[in-house]
Structures are given as structure tokens and as C-alpha cells.
């Protein structure tokens, strides 16, 4: 018999609209976490998890801020229950960060020279022949000017 969750409020109206997508992304996240790491570099093991996390947050961002398909109560409920990253969504709302892949890419303490990640550099400024991937999340370019 499943555990009864006490003290939780039922989800707000509109939950049935986004629930199938969130369940599918949760299933994909579970598969990515259980995926074998054979033949991958150490940094590559977490890239699928970052991508799914980004996709889930972006889905809720689009539904609330762009399409206006969900209510403020439902958006707050999703953020509170961990379905979206509130800090990442806050950055997406600022100019120049519309395509940001993860928050680690803009933190200068995580890089060798105290700057942002290489994926934040516009593609026109880099060598065209080289394929550059972010070490943190595997992104190949999230600068808004790209």
C-alpha cells in the first residue's frame, strides 16, 4: 500500500495540463541518472542530467512567461516542489541571458582565469572549425549574440 502524504495541498488548477510533460521529463531524468558511465569522460557523466534539468525549467518558463498558459499559483507550486530552477529562470528574464544553459557557466570562480565559461562567448568570436563544449554542462554555445 502506498504511503499517504499528509499536509500537502493539492496542486492548483491547470496541473493536469503540465503533469504529463513533467512526468515524462522525470522519467528521462531517472534514466539519465541510472545510465552507465562506461567509456565517458568524468565530466560527461552529468551532462544529460543538466540538459534535462534545463529542459524542465525551460518548459515551465515558456508556459508561464511566454505563452501565459499556466497561473502564477501553479508556477509557484512547481518552483516550490522542485520542478523548476527559480534562479535559472530569473537569469533567463534578464537581457543577455535568454539562452543561458546553466548557472555554473556564468560563475567566474569555476574557471581558470576568473571569467565566464567558453560557451558564453559568441560563435563569431571563436575559431569556426573547432567544436567547443562547456566542461560543466556540455553546452556548445549559449551566448545571446550567437
UniProtKB/TrEMBL annotation:
Pfam families per record: BUD31
GO cellular component: post-mRNA release spliceosomal complex; Prp19 complex; U2 snRNP; U2-type spliceosomal complex
UniProt subcellular location: Nucleus
InterPro entries, alphabetized: BUD31, BUD31/G10-rel_CS
Domain of life: Eukaryota
GO biological process, one term: mRNA splicing, via spliceosome
Keywords for this protein: Nucleus
Sequence similarity: Belongs to the BUD31 (G10) family.
Protein name: G10 protein
Amino acid at each position: 500500500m502506498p504511503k499517504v502524504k499528509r499536509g500537502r495541498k493539492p496542486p492548483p488548477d491547470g496541473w493536469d495540463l503540465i503533469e504529463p510533460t513533467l512526468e515524462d521529463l522525470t522519467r528521462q531524468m531517472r534514466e539519465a541518472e541510472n545510465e552507465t558511465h562506461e567509456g565517458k569522460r568524468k565530466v560527461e557523466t552529468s551532462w544529460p542530467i543538466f540538459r534535462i534539468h534545463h529542459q524542465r525549467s525551460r518548459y515551465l518558463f515558456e508556459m508561464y512567461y511566454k505563452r501565459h498558459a499556466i497561473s502564477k499559483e501553479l508556477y509557484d507550486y512547481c518552483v516550490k516542489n522542485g520542478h523548476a530552477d527559480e534562479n535559472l529562470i530569473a537569469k533567463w528574464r534578464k537581457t543577455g541571458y535568454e539562452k543561458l544553459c546553466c548557472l555554473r557557466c556564468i560563475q567566474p570562480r569555476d574557471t581558470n582565469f576568473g571569467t565566464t565559461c567558453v560557451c558564453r562567448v559568441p560563435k563569431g568570436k571563436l575559431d569556426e572549425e573547432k567544436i567547443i563544449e562547456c566542461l560543466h554542462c556540455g553546452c556548445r554555445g549559449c551566448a545571446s549574440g550567437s
